[in-house]
Amino acid sequence: MKEKLVLVGNGMAGVRTIEEILDRDPDRYQITIIGEEQCPNYNRIMLSNVLQKKMTVSEIITNPLEWYEENQISLINHDPAVQMDTTNKTITTQSGKEISYDKCILATGSRAFILPVEGAQLPGVLGFRTIDDTENMLEASQKYQKAVVIGGGLLGLEAAKGLLDQGMDVTVVHLERWLMETQLDEKAGKMLQADLEKQGLKFLMEKATKKILGDTRVTGLAFSDGTTIETDIVVMSIGIRSETTLARTTTIEVNRGIVVDDFMKTNVPDVFAVGECAEHDGNVYGLVAPLFEQGKVLADVLTGKEAKAYQGSTTFTSLKVSGCDLYSAGNIRETEGVNSIEAFDGINYTYKKIFVRENQVVGVVLYGDTSEGNRYYNILKKNESIEEYTPVSLLHMVGEEASADVSEWPDDEVICGCNGIDKGTIMTAINEKELSSVADVTKHTKAGGSCGKCKAVIGDVLAYALGGEVVSAPTGICGCTDLTRDQIVTQIYAKKMTSSGEVYRELNFTNSEGCPKCRPAINFYLNVAWPKEHEDEKESRYVNERLYANIQNDGTFSVIPRMRGGKTNPQQLLLIAKVAEKYDVPMVKVTGSQRIGLYGVKKEDLPKIWEELDMKAAGAYAKAVRSVKTCVGANFCRFGTQDSMGLGIKLEQRYEFIDTPHKFKMGVSACPRSCVESGVKDFGIIGVENGFQIYVGGNGGTEVKEAVLLTTVETEQEVIDICGAMLQYYRETGIYAERTAPWIERLGFDNVKDVLLDPVKRQELLVTLDEAVTGRRGNPWDEVVEDNKTRQELYTVGRA
């Protein structure tokens, strides 16, 4: 008979311990897990992504129900343990189920702390700790306008940014002088506040909440200094408290948390504790790395392995708070005997501060540039003397200081601080499992799977282990991944990933939220791959595409209405003139694509101008099909051979608002004189006596590329079809932000020509294109004009 192991708590720390046990001895225990929440085990760290609608609940599930079944684990979900009998070794759940155990792990986690002030029980007062909390916040954001978040720690800032992204007016109330005071010093905390204020968050610092106002629900807050603030909801995020209710019904010793020894044992035989509910040597940890370290020790104990005593953890935080990079480790306060080395780069807005006691690093704070966090952490954790280090270096040449030779590092040198993976572990995995890439190392050891800052060092270790014979992998699309565009797109199809969150998770992106470079790219690839299944993630697009207008260097915008083929009429001209005069538009100009542009428009005026113009957007802001430039053609020009304006209008009508990897420009000239420079367009047409010459791959810009003659056709319909086929082929194979000239060079002109001139392939591409854009094409200006919520969210001053 297997021993019965019961885990109380279905969270990250407890389930990670079970995973470690299964890795060591999968057949040792009959395992039961008791969980309070309805969902199976999920990554609580990613709740902020759910709140910001970057991920769905299903995407943050770490261990789906199938995992429990595959490992023969009995899961009792949505039925918390309420009673524990340590004498008879039984656990009773809320529904009355009684489960016996031989050994029990308590991993009950923590609760959000709610301020014990008057009004704290009013409707509209929320916590931010669980999926239910997150869904309640999302529901509230759709009904109400103003939110106050009490607490300027990491979780509070994530909650505030999430509510801001949902269109709410958000104020963060914080008791201290600066944000994240336990992880950051004052300088870094103030830098973080300044960056978040630029994003639209408001702050009330050094404010103590005295009372929550309201009769039937929240209406505001009153502070101890006599001031007040109006609000519709209040989110409490001022810290967590270990959840020890179950343990307190027994003789288990409880202080701040459940007291454990160096092997995670409580004072009661066969009962253990890990995670945020456990107190070791007076410390309760709330970060992931210490909890995982505890889980490894306990897994050794429970599987009969020789366990190293848990000696506590040196905590560190490598985070991206709403797009702001920061890193913190160890003791970050200047106390007696602790001095610091500080460097602030005002040009690049980066800050570094190293705290030193007796020639040893005891703390680190980095803001803006966190690339050296892992190196400083190793120096700190190993108590290494810094006597021979240069404390400050300024204006060194790039690459002047060579990195240390990993071949000389000892096996216990920590490579991945997040997961506690050292060089020896990585070397063993490389040799035993014949690993040949950084991605393989991450998959098998978890090294590099969290913040990802250590991936370059993992690559060095890999090269060393394989004798320096590693073939350099292709450059990834951004710093979040080593994968190329083709590798990512292949996996999107193979695994049918339909959201960015899935891509980041399944393909082990170092940043679980992506970065400004990869977010729009992944969103585009998903739009092309799964046009019906994938919901366009507007928050991943660049600001121009989110606002449907080009932002100018002074923060104002341009309005360029569509005039198909460059053709207009007196009524449109009158409308443009009236709008320009009414809204005091500082400049009206004919653009390079023969359109009339209004420049210097205020953001809040955009929807009103669009409504009054009653014209379509020209798409001049987007990576998409742009306006078609034409000459007057055979109808008026004595040299013209074809109706260039008519064809240009047909091309715009057929393909407007279709997204492409980069802007896609077209020109139609009625004769070889090519007044519209068709020879430098992505798709250029020149009218000749017997039809139309088609040129492809021409690009203007800093590096002019001349288009190449693709073919000559007789009819306008052939031109339109070849254009559509090229658009879809470019969409399917182009790298995001790659113009058509390098695209054709990469694929090979002959290959592109063969595809576009093959009638069968051309028809297939046209059908795919039509299926992809059906139902998704429409004038975005109309959508904004008709949607008051969108107008408030995007076109109110201070929002973007």
TrEMBL record:
The keyword Lipid metabolism does not apply. GO terms for molecular function: 2 iron, 2 sulfur cluster binding; 4 iron, 4 sulfur cluster binding; flavin adenine dinucleotide binding; heme binding; metal ion binding; NADP binding; nitrite reductase activity. Its cofactor is siroheme; [2Fe-2S] cluster; [4Fe-4S] cluster; FAD. Pathway: Nitrogen metabolism; nitrate reduction (assimilation). The keyword DNA-binding does not apply. Residues 4-282 form the FAD/NAD(P)-binding domain. Residues 552-614 form the Nitrite/Sulfite reductase ferredoxin-like domain. CDD domains: NirB_Fer2_BFD-like_1, NirB_Fer2_BFD-like_2. [4Fe-4S] cluster binds at residues 631, 637, 671, 675. One of its GO terms (biological process) is nitrate assimilation. Residues 414-463, 477-526 form the BFD-like [2Fe-2S]-binding domain. Residues 622-761 form the Nitrite/sulphite reductase 4Fe-4S domain. Residues 317-383 form the NADH-rubredoxin oxidoreductase C-terminal domain. Binds 1 siroheme per subunit. Siroheme binds at residue 675. Keywords: 2Fe-2S, 4Fe-4S, FAD, Flavoprotein, Heme, Iron, Iron-sulfur, Metal-binding, Nitrate assimilation, Oxidoreductase. It holds the Pfam family NIR_SIR_ferr. Belongs to the nitrite and sulfite reductase 4Fe-4S domain family. This is Nitrite reductase [NAD(P)H], large subunit.
